[in-house]
């Protein structure tokens, strides 16, 4: 592949995806070659001494070679090896370069949009952790290969496909960052496992110890973290999951309220009816009739 870069005009269609590709490029730097090798627009050009600040996100994949990058402040270089990705954040000073004696091959995209802003706001990606080691560099390489193919096509054709590929790339990096982070992201993954457990076990009596074990957290820490993350406690989440399952059975089967109560572990049809009415504002049989009427009217 020949070295290239391409910039794209902004499009209102980016609001659909929450993602927009602003630019893309590829450069193979042989040992001893000057860096950066090509002249970019003035707001993107940089040299090592001054560094640079961008107004958009950039995702840079180093498929081979090695070098360094700094983000936030000078004097704390991070070693970049082949297979690594680093993220450049809007408004954050940075600089990077291949090792002169080794060189590297870089693939990059510039992105903006609601999805990237939200990932930053939620801490899924962070200027404090700009360097990411993907669990599957080959997948990242494949995503960039598809983006490079799109870059050779007319801008109107590129926009939607490139936007969704950029989202896919962002999601993979967020997952990798979450697995490698021992703090908030790690707890979030543990709580996701607990939610899955509670949904699968909603027909059984609530078991706080088993739910905490599914998350790999101690009981008190689990309850506090669950409420902080989900807005309700694990017992209430279990009860709501059971009622959602009941609503699915009412809407999609001919099972009686008594049969559903027995299937989902309610002590009686009366107990089930009372719990459903408190949560949904109407008895199960009336809810089923209303749902059937709604579907018939569609």
Description:
- The chain has 298 residues and is α+β, with helices and mostly antiparallel strands.
- It folds into 2 domains: 4-180, Regulatory protein AraC (Jelly Rolls), CATH 2.60.120; 185-297, Arc Repressor Mutant, subunit A, CATH 1.10.10.60.
- Helix content is 48%, strand content 18%.
- The chain is built from 11 helices and 8 strands.
- The protein has helices spanning 14-17, 114-121, 137-151, 155-180, 184-200, 208-215, 219-230, 234-252, 257-263, 269-280, 284-297, and strands at 4-7, 20-29, 57-71, 78-81, 84-88, 94-98, 104-112, 131-132.
- Strands 1, 2, 3, 4, 5, 6, 7 and 8 form an 8-stranded antiparallel β-sheet that branches.
- β3 (57-71) and β4 (78-81) form a beta hairpin.
- The longest helix is centred in the middle third of the chain and has 26 residues, at 155-180.
- The model has no long low-confidence stretch (mean pLDDT 88).
DSSP E strands, number? 8
Our measurement of the CA-to-CA distance between the termini, rounded to an integer number of angstroms, reads: 53 Å
Topology-level CATH name of the largest domain: Jelly Rolls
Residue share in β-strands? 15-25%
Low-confidence stretches are none
The largest pleated sheet is described as:
8 strands, antiparallel
Average pLDDT confidence is 88
Counting DSSP H or I runs of 4 or more residues, the number of helices is: 11
Total separate domains:
2
Q: In CATH terms, what is the architecture of the largest domain?
A: Sandwich
Query: What is the gyration radius calculated from CA atoms?
Result: 26 Å
What is the overall silhouette? Answer: elongated
- SSE series: EHEEEEEEHEHHHHHHHHH
Fourth-tier CATH superfamily name of the largest domain: Regulatory protein AraC
Q: What is the highest CATH level, the class of the largest domain?
A: Mainly Beta
Structural class call reads: alpha+beta
Q: Bin the helical content.
A: 40-55%
């Amino acid at each position: 592949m020949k070295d290239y870069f391409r910039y794209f005009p902004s499009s209102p269609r980016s609001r659909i995806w929450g993602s927009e590709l602003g630019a893309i490029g590829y450069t193979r730097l042989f040992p001893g070659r000057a860096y950066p090798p090509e002249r970019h627009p003035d707001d993107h050009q940089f040299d090592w001494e001054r560094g640079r600040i961008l107004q958009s996100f950039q995702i840079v994949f180093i498929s081979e070679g090695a070098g360094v990058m700094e983000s936030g402040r000078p004097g704390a270089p991070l070693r970049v090896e082949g297979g690594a990705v680093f993220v450049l954040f809007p408004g954050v000073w940075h600089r990077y370069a291949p090792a002169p004696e080794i060189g590297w091959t870089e693939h990059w995209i510039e992105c903006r949009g609601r999805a990237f802003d939200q990932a930053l706001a939620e801490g899924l990606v962070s200027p404090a952790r700009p360097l990411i080691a993907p669990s599957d560099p080959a997948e990242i390489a494949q995503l960039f290969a598809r983006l490079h193919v799109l870059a050779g096509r007319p801008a109107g054709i590129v926009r939607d496909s490139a936007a969704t590929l950029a989202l896919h790339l962002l999601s993979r990096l967020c997952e990798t960052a979450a697995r490698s982070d021992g703090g908030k992201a790690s707890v979030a993954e543990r709580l996701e496992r607990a939610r899955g457990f509670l949904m699968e076990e909603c027909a059984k009596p609530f078991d706080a110890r088993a739910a905490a074990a599914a998350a790999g957290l101690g009981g008190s820490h689990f309850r506090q973290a669950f409420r902080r993350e989900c807005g309700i406690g694990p017992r209430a989440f279990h009860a709501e999951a059971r009622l959602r399952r009941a609503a699915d059975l009412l809407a999609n089967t001919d099972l009686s309220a008594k049969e559903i109560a027995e299937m989902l572990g309610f002590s009686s049809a009366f107990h089930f009816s009372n719990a459903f009415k408190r949560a949904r504002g109407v008895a199960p049989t009336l809810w089923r009739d209303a749902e059937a009427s709604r579907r018939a009217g569609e």
